[in-house]
Every structure is written in C-alpha cells, then in structure tokens.
Amino acid sequence: MTRWSPQPAPDEPDGLILFDGVCVFCSRWVRWVIGHDPQRRFRFVPIQSPTGWALAVRHGIDPDAPQTNAVVLGGRIFFKSDAALTVLGALPGTGGLKALKAAPRVLRDPLYDLIAKNRYAIFGRTDACMVPSPEDRERFLT
Asked: Which DSSP letter does residue 140 get?
C-alpha cells in the first residue's frame, strides 16, 4: 500500500471532493462535475477553507502544497488519478472511463503528477477560491 492508495474514511462525508480552490484547472474540474452531476451527489471543499485544511491534514495532504485532490466515496478516500477516475465512474454517461482504473496506478499517477506539478504554470492561479453560483452554493463546505 502506497501513501496515496485508497484509505478507509468512514467518518468523512460521502461524495465530498477536496480541491485546490485557487487552481484554475481544479476549479474548472469542479464546475465540470457540477454540470455532469444531475443527482447532486457530490459536494466540494477547497483545501484553502478551514474544513478543507482539516480534511487534508487528516489524510496526509500538505495543505500548503497539495500534491493531490481527493474524493470520499463509499466510506473510502481516493487520491490522485484514483480520485478523478472514481468521480468519473460515478457520473452518468462517464462510466466507461472507470475502466481506466484497470491501468496500474504506477502508470496513471505519473501523468497526474506532471499535470499537478505544473497546473499553475499551464492553467493559471487565482488570488481567491472560486465563488459558486447561488444555486450551487449549498454544495460547498467552508
């Protein structure tokens, strides 16, 4: 089991996605999930918020220099490519992408790491976390 292997997280809220709120790419990912989640299964917490900070620390993510996003689903927390593919596998119309989890993490995570390491240079960074629309505000924890 590696540091970023899925872990039990029975006390964490199901469907919670932890993301870097000042990362433009990460915020676009959240907006994309919102647009593809008609059942409103997922909720979101930026790592820069008190709740996100605490969640990150509990699960070994450095809140000052996050190397991964995370998602809690089915009593487990997933990191890196597992997190993204777990979310995709739970959304309608994207279940086929869940098959990518069959590829070993040792092959998937280096690509994830490359994007994560360069996300600000490639996609940009904002000075503040994204502001959700009024209809989605209740889906965000602070």
From this structure: B
> What pTM does this model have?
0.93
Helix, strand, or coil here: 23?
strand
Give the per-residue SS3 of 38-99.
Answer: CCCCCEEEECCCHHHHHHHHHCCCCCCCCCCCEEEECCEEEEHHHHHHHHHHHCCCCHHHHH
**What would the pLDDT profile of 17-67 be if each residue is shown by its tens digit?**
999 999 999 999 999 999 999 999 999 999 999 999 999 999 999 999 999
Q: How far apart are CA 42 and CA 25, in angstroms?
A: 18
Alpha-carbon distance of 135 to 82, in angstroms, equals 29
CA 27 to chain centre: 10
Q: Which residue has the tokens 């993510």?
A: 61
